[in-house]
Write a structure and sequence with these properties.
The chain has 15 helices and 14 strands. By secondary structure, it is of the alpha/beta class. It has a seven-stranded parallel beta sheet with strand order 3-4-2-5-6-1-7, sandwiched between helices. It has a seven-stranded parallel beta sheet with strand order 10-11-9-12-13-8-14, sandwiched between helices. Helix 2 packs parallel to helix 3, helix 3 packs across helix 4 and helix 6 packs across helix 8. The longest helix has 15 residues. Belongs to the DEAD box helicase family.
């Protein structure tokens, strides 16, 4: 199959060809026809599968098929909501690349920079706006932007937006939208919150779930190392010294923990920088640039960065601890093994995380067997209480059926 089969406008086909896109990915082949037909859509697909183009191409095609209004109004016709500043910039870059020469005007709005710095592009007129919920709310409160003209709405990384506490903002934003619109949700996981939002905002959505075939070899190799908490830094330093990973993304549960780990890694000779919400936008961008350029080999991030970063060919992700939210484990390891490349995801499991480990296995419906690393074997005298009950998958299934109008 080629992109020409989707009846996309010529400017989009030319840009796809110029960017080296020869054939649609699985998620694109499934999602683009449904969106081109005007259907509401829910897509469950991992990062690196091409889902950004899967929603941008139909959006751009629809905008090109319509008569554009006067461009001097700050009122977009299409809106993409994303959870983080980094992802906002990445989707914006993809939209400008795919829409190059088409006449579609694209703008972005994200926090961490003065509101006024983004007003010029928006006031000049915008067809497609990519925005984070918080910054969009700022514009709506100041009446610098209208969104009642939006007829095509996309939530990218919808589950992460909800995990970050944006449900109230999402509902406030959707109240300002027009009633007639097409809505799509793209996400790596479908939790209860996603089904709840889908039920309230979508009409009989089509469902696309992209999963690797059971016979396929996983692109991400997962290893769980049992280790005492006090030895994690030494073990991490050993792994960094022994392996020739060009880049390593390490996840810490807290901002303070990320900063402390960076300081300790630098002290023992490893180039490392942090990525978390307490850093200024300028510092975050500089740290990410240093990491991508290779001047810092290790990026230590909190989960706020788990879904927003797009690091090409990242070889290794390391969980310093298991995340409290089980879905975040999927988000974290999804930073590696992208777009057909293989990747390695390591988790340093100390006894205090055993309950989270059990819940994660139940959530994933597969075993994640801990292993020992010679020279860093755990102290077996440490014990923890096992949880008496785990989450109920039946509740998720019920919410899913309701969202699809089947229950």
């Amino acid at each position: 199959m080629s992109f020409a089969a989707f009846n996309l406008p010529s400017p989009l086909l030319d840009n796809l060809s110029g960017a080296g896109f020869s054939a649609p990915t699985e998620v694109q082949a499934a999602a683009i026809p449904a969106l081109m037909d005007g259907r509401d859509l829910m897509v469950k697909a991992a990062t690196g599968t091409g889902k950004t183009a899967a929603f941008l191409l139909p959006m751009l095609a629809k905008l090109l098929s319509e008569t554009a209004p006067e461009r001097n109004q700050p009122s977009p016709r299409a809106l993409v909501l994303v959870p983080t500043r980094e992802l906002c910039q990445q989707v914006y870059d993809a939209a400008t690349q795919l829409g190059k020469g088409s006449g579609v005007k694209v703008a972005q709005a994200y926090g961490g920079v003065p509101l006024e710095s983004q007003l010029k592009a928006i006031k000049g007129g915008v067809d497609l706006l990519i925005a984070t919920p918080g910054r969009l709310i700022d514009h709506l409160k100041k009446r610098t932007l209208r969104i009642d003209t939006v007829s095509f709405l996309v939530f990218d990384e919808a589950d992460r937006m909800l995990d970050m506490g944006f449900e109230d903002e999402i509902r406030a934003i959707t109240k300002k939208l027009g009633k007639v619109r097409q809505t799509a949700l793209f996400s790596a996981t479908f939790g209860d919150g996603v089904w709840r939002v889908a039920k309230s905002l979508m009409t009989s959505p089509a469902l696309v779930e992209i999963a690797a075939a059971k016979d396929d070899k996983p692109l991400i190799e997962e290893r769980i190392y049992a280790i005492d908490a006090a030895r994690k830094l030494a073990f991490l330093s050993h792994l960094l010294g022994k392996n020739d990973w060009k880049q390593v993304l390490v996840f810490s549960r807290t901002k303070e923990g990320a900063d402390k780990l960076v300081a300790k890694l630098v002290d023992v000779g490893h180039g490392a920088v942090a990525m978390h919400a307490d850093l200024s936008q300028k510092q975050r961008e500089q740290n990410l640039a240093d990491f991508k350029a290779g001047s810092a080999r290790v990026l230590v991030a909190t989960d706020v960065a788990a879904r927003g970063l797009d690091i090409e060919a990242l070889p290794c992700v390391i969980n310093l601890e298991l995340p409290f939210k089980r879905e975040d484990y999927v988000h974290r390891i999804g930073r590696t093994g992208r777009a057909g490349a293989s990747g390695l995801a390591l988790t340093l499991l100390d006894p205090s995380d055993e309950a989270l480990h059990i819940e994660l296995e139940t959530f994933l419906d597969r075993r994640l067997a801990p292993q020992w690393y010679q020279g860093f074997e755990p102290d077996l005298t440490i014990t923890v209480d096992r949880p008496r009950s785990l989450s109920k998958a039946a509740q998720k299934q019920k919410a899913r059926k309701r969202a699809l109008g089947k229950g």
